[in-house]
Specification:
By secondary structure, this protein is of the alpha+beta class. It has a domain of 161 residues: OB fold (Dihydrolipoamide Acetyltransferase, E2P). The longest helix is centred in the middle third of the chain and has 18 residues.
Length: 394
């Protein structure tokens, strides 16, 4: 398997638990590569295996063609940035960044030159002589990144480095992290459970589930063409409808029969035969909503329903529409706002519609996976939706 970082059938168990199960994939040189998944999926174990903090039970790990599986941590061409910074409190910012080069007994002139370069990279020249207690959380994380980069590792390992920051600071640091990656050009291996973080900065993402790689691809591929129900539900939000193939309309399209629901036209890329079970996914933002019935279109699925819940988010509104016994989530982006236009609200009768190409067929996941997803991917929208049911937003 070609690649700059290669996992070759890597397995790691802890007692009766298989944390990483025969994982094989490759990361190209210079990529910003994210490993994404819920708690307990094995992502942090993979990072610890690369760092040398754990040793695999079987399989090999390679970096730049070198088998590092049995190398001690200090002999590996990697450095790690942890969630909680791990800065030395008694040292200044300058001294923290210089620490690795000093341990390596580099010449004084080289240390000064490289530390100044790192301070410029993280835009903290003015804070060089301050101690960690006198700088913000975001600044501490930048110092931790600079300290890890100064030894010029071949791979920078980032173990949920933004998790300890508040939302706005996390978003700002995420963009700074992306800019630093572009500037230094080395391979970043980013561990996170946050889908929005991974999608925002990654060249490639590996979604892990129960110690196995569920899918690897670009953010667009994972979101628009998920290969499993788990990936579809974990990356973003979606509506699932269960049914069976009722009829083949053409070589590409089929009608899907859903219980207590009119038949749905769907692009049948799986080439399912008539009568086969179908697990259909439709993203909320692919669905349109309006008060007036839309013009008939042979490739549109059009249904009438009642608005049960509304979650206003400023830049968009999320509606939950009851139609034919099913509850459908619809996301409407706000491109403009007209004061004289009456907004759609609770109990309104509306029409919803989507193109046949915007639904995709997946295999169904287990009840255990469904419960895991509900716990791990519960979005703020859903929390607000629960609040609406108690009357807080009415």
């Amino acid at each position: 398997m070609a690649g700059f970082v290669v996992f070759d059938k890597v397995t790691k168990t802890f007692g009766d638990v298989t944390a990483v199960d025969a994982v094989s994939f490759a990361i190209e040189m210079g990529q910003f590569f994210s490993i994404l998944g819920p708690s307990g999926c094995g992502k942090t174990t993979l990072l610890r295996l690369v760092a040398g903090f754990e040793k695999p039970d079987s399989g090999r790990i390679f970096i730049d063609g070198q088998d590092i599986t049995d190398l001690p941590p200090n002999k590996r061409p990697v450095n790690t940035v942890f969630q909680h910074y791990a800065l030395f409190p008694h040292l200044t910012v300058w001294e923290n960044i210089a620490f690795g080069l000093r341990i390596a007994k580099r010449p004084k002139a080289e240390i000064e030159r490289e530390v100044e370069r790192m301070l410029q990279l993280i835009q903290m020249e003015a804070y060089a002589h301050k101690k960690p207690d006198h700088i913000s959380g975001g600044q501490k994380q930048r110092v931790a990144i600079a300290r890890a980069l100064i030894n010029k590792p071949k791979v920078l390992l980032l173990d949920e480095p933004l998790a300890a920051l508040d939302l706005k600071l996390r978003q700002k640091m995420l963009m700074e992290l992306d800019l630093i990656h572009d500037e230094v050009g080395i391979t970043f291996l980013f561990i996170t459970h946050d889908q929005t973080e991974a999608i925002a900065v990654s060249d490639q993402i590996a979604v892990l589930h129960k110690g196995k790689v569920e899918q690897i691809g670009t953010p667009v591929q994972l979101y628009e063409s998920p290969k499993s129900s788990f990936v579809a539900a974990f990356i973003g939000d979606t509506n699932f409808l269960d049914g069976r193939t009722a009829a083949k309309i053409s070589s590409e399209y089929s009608e899907i029969a859903i219980d207590d629901f009119p038949n749905i036209l769907c692009f049948n890329d799986k080439q399912l035969s008539v009568g086969e079970p179908v697990h259909l996914s439709v993203r909320p933002e692919k669905i349109h909503i309006g008060r007036e019935e839309p013009p008939k279109n042979p490739q549109h699925n059009i249904f009438q329903g009642i608005v049960e819940d509304v979650v206003y988010k400023g830049d968009h509104t999320k509606f939950f529409v009851k139609t034919h016994g099913h509850r459908i989530a619809v996301l409407q982006q706000h491109s403009r706002f007209l004061l004289d236009e009456k907004p759609i609200t609770w109990n309104d009768t509306v029409w919803i519609w989507w193109h046949a190409d915007d639904g995709f067929i997946l295999e169904k996941y287990s009840e255990a996976d469904k419960k895991l997803l509900e716990e791990e991917t519960k979005a703020p929208d859903e929390q607000e939706e629960e609040a609406t049911k108690e009357g807080f937003f009415r």
